[in-house]
Each structure stands twice: as structure tokens, then as C-alpha cells.
Amino acid sequence: MNPATIVLFILLAVVATARPLPATLPRMIHGLKTEEYERTPHTSRQRNSNLKNAMLAVHNRERRSLGIPPLRWSRALQGTAQRWANTIVNESGLRHSGPGENLWKGRGRYSYTEMANSWAREKRYFVYGTYPNVKRGGKVVGHYTQMIWRRTTTIGCATAGRPATGVVLVCHYRPVGNVIGQKVY
Predict the structure, then answer these.
(1) Cis link prior to 41 (omega < 30° from 0)?
(2) Angstrom distance (rounded) from CA 146 to CA 156
(3) What is the DSSP string of 82-148?
(4) CA distances (Å), 143 to each of 10, 16, 41, 98, 102, in order?
């Protein structure tokens, strides 16, 4: 018998003895449970719309709680954020492109709201004052202060990467916040 015939017999034996999967196992499509896949945006337009809505909702919730006017979305800033996200997505750490920017990186599935809320949670360490003297206990609050910076009026965000290998979120803000010597709001 030649090797190809042996392989064919082995495959037939495996198929013949295979049992169907239990009905209790979730159906999988592209590595996602069916119900997760059905909730996942399938076009870049849907993803961009969801990102825009989530970012504006979280940022403007924080601003509204302090009586600060809401941010508006900027497609131009979304474009610069996308270019930077594409640049840093495969780097081991995070590197800023300049002032007026928030960065987030994670592996696994996170909603856009969860990403932005990670910045908003810094408010527990925030103390109102003149930047950079606005934190207690040496904690990081710069993401939060950029979110609520009164002079900032526009935002644009973008993501790059895949949940299995790492996703980067970049938000660009104009006018930039976290200006030394200025009040946050």
C-alpha cells in the first residue's frame, strides 16, 4: 500500500467513528460564539459609528457631570488617530504621538465603552486645580483630565489590531488639554 492510501484509510476510519458534537456546545463562527458574532459590526462604517457613539457618550457624560460643554466628533482627528493607531499597534508598549492624545491597549474583547471608562475611572484620584497638580497619591489622571478639559471642543478616535493579539485605541483632542499652568475647567 502506498502512503496516500494509508492516510485515506485513517481519515475514513476517523470520520466513520466520529460522533456529532453535543447540542449544548455553542456554535462558532470565525472564532466567536454565534451570539457574539451577530453583535459584532461587520463593516468599517458600523464599527466607526459604534466607536464614535461610545466615545462621545462616555466623554460627554463626564463633562456633563461637571457642567462642561459636550465634545463634537472630528473626522479629521479620527483620521490622525487611525494613522497613529496603525503605527503603534504592533509595538510592545504605548508611545504618544504628541499632546492632546489618550491611548489604550488591551488583549481580549472589550467594548468601546469599557475602553473609555478605564480613563474615566481615574477621576477617583483627581483633585481640582492647576495642571499638573491635580492628582492625589501619585496616581495617573491625565487621561481623565484630557476627557474633561474645558477648552477641548473636538475629539476623534480610532482602533487598530485584533482581540487575540492586542487592540489599540487612540483618541486625539483639539484644542489639546493637560496644559501646564492651566486649570482643568
Answers:
(1) no
(2) 13
(3) HHHHHHHTTSSS----SSSEEEEEESS---HHHHHHHHHGGGGGB--SBTT--BSTT---HHHHHHH
(4) 58, 58, 27, 14, 6
Measured at the alpha carbon of residue 151, what is the angle toward residues 85 and 149, in degrees to the nearest 5?
Answer: 65
Contact between 106 and 119 under an 8 Å Cβ cutoff? The reply is no
Contact assessment for residue 70 and residue 60, using Cβ atoms and an 8 Å cutoff = yes
CA distance 84 to 99: 13
Count CB neighbours of 4 within 10 A: 8
Nearest alpha-carbon partner for 158 in 176, 142, 178, 172: 172
- pLDDT tens by residue, the chain, 185 residues: 554 444 333 433 433 443 443 343 333 323 333 333 334 444 667 778 899 999 999 999 999 999 999 999 999 999 999 999 999 999 999 999 999 999 999 999 999 999 999 999 999 999 999 999 999 999 999 999 999 999 999 999 999 999 989 999 999 999 999 999 999 99
In the chain, the amino acid numbered 92 is: S
